[in-house]
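Minutes, project huddle
Topic: does the predicted pose make sense with pyridoxal-5'-phosphate bound?
PN asked that the exact inputs be recorded in the minutes so nobody has to dig through chat later. Recorded below.
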Amino acid sequence: MSISDNIQRIKKEIPQSVALVAVSKTKSNNEIMEAYHAGQRVFGENKIQEMTQKSSELPKDIEWHMIGHVQRNKVKYMAPYVALIQGVDSIKLLKEINKQAKKEQRIISCLLQMHIAEEDTKFGFDEDELKALLKSGVIQELENIQIKGLMGMATFTENTIQIRKEFKTLKAMFEVIKKDLPDITEVSMGMSGDYSIAIEEGSTMVRIGSSIFGARNKT
Ligand SMILES: *Cc1c(COP(=O)(O)O)cnc(C)c1O
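Predicted holo structure (tokens), as shared on screen:
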């Protein structure tokens, strides 16, 4: 199957209301352009340097999403153009994004990354930290960021019952914080291996890499 066949197939599978982020990390400009010519405009990367290089070389109507862990000292490189920072996992990072957004006279959209998996290698807030963040009033104070919703990654396992349970947890947290942040709309969950379950559990945004582009080269 070609990249464009894969995109057409996945687009048919997912409801129109669910956004497809094509995860293009480690993939070449040519591969991204193949997806682009199939109509794809939203791409996800996990390294700021790689994303910045691609954004400078590729069409300007591409929306770039940062889906990986973000180091604060690198926020400035993506602040001019990034469309959505999905992996916001600390208050310090939120403040830095706000500072850099202000310099660029932009409002940068962000998702708060939640730790829903069993593995402790996956970054993110837990439920108590999220509640503390909401209570602190920081989100309301930071005028150059807009929180659009939550993002999470399920445990890497064959156990679909567990995956489903983790997605349910994320969706439930979304409903809880929507009471304080009524403008949030996005629950970013679901990757190549688990996006069907994620959509059943209320995902509004899936991040799909290998099912579109094939297996990644190790970096
Ligand atoms: C790599 C990555 C994806 C895509 O993974 P696939 O299994 O290739 O679809 C999605 N989300 C995040 C945060 C990633 O790092």
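Observations noted during the meeting:
- The domain at 3-213 is CATH 3.20.20.10 (TIM Barrel).
- The chain has one domain: 3-213.
No decisions taken; revisit at the next huddle.
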